[in-house]
Design brief:
With 139 residues, the chain is α+β, with helices and mostly antiparallel strands. Helix content is 24%, strand content 32%. Strands 1, 2, 3, 4, 5 and 6 form a six-stranded antiparallel β-sheet that branches. The longest helix is centred in the middle third of the chain and has 16 residues.
Length: 139
């Protein structure tokens, strides 16, 4: 069963806030000059910010943070954040699949930015059932 798409906008202001909260002030997250010097296409979002936004999608689908049993990803491509007011978008989709273990559902997650996958092997295990009304499933 496909779950509803969720989209998250990321701006340079979000990167500044995340840097302050996480303590990660690496210049690849705020300086175009530095980011391009080290071979990046521009300023990139913190990987853990990307993972957290996708995790927010998982908790929304699951109905509560404590319904998430397991969650993991591999980073495949950076999320480049332009220096404008629009920023960029991370689009998150998932397919819910039954597991062999009763009471659990596996979510196979796809996260893209500008049409390119930014995470691989993104999966979560959540307690079943998913809430009533998610993709038409009754809970």
């Amino acid at each position: 069963m496909e779950l509803p798409t969720q989209t998250f906008r990321v701006t340079r202001a979000d990167l500044i806030r995340y840097a302050g909260a996480s303590g990660d002030f690496n210049p690849i997250h705020w300086s175009d000059r530095f980011a391009t010097t080290v071979g990046l296409p521009g300023v990139i979002a913190h990987g853990m910010l990307t993972m957290a936004l996708v995790g927010r999608a998982v908790t929304t689908w699951a109905g509560a943070a404590d319904a998430v049993v397991d969650y993991g990803v591999r980073f495949t491509r950076p999320v480049v954040v332009p220096d404008d007011d629009s920023g960029t978008e991370i689009v998150v989709n998932a397919v819910a699949r039954e597991t062999a273990e009763a009471g659990l559902t596996r979510l196979d997650i796809t996260a893209t930015c500008n049409g390119e996958k930014v995470l691989a092997q993104a999966r979560a295990t959540v307690r079943t059932p998913l809430p009533t009304g998610v993709a038409g499933r009754e809970g």
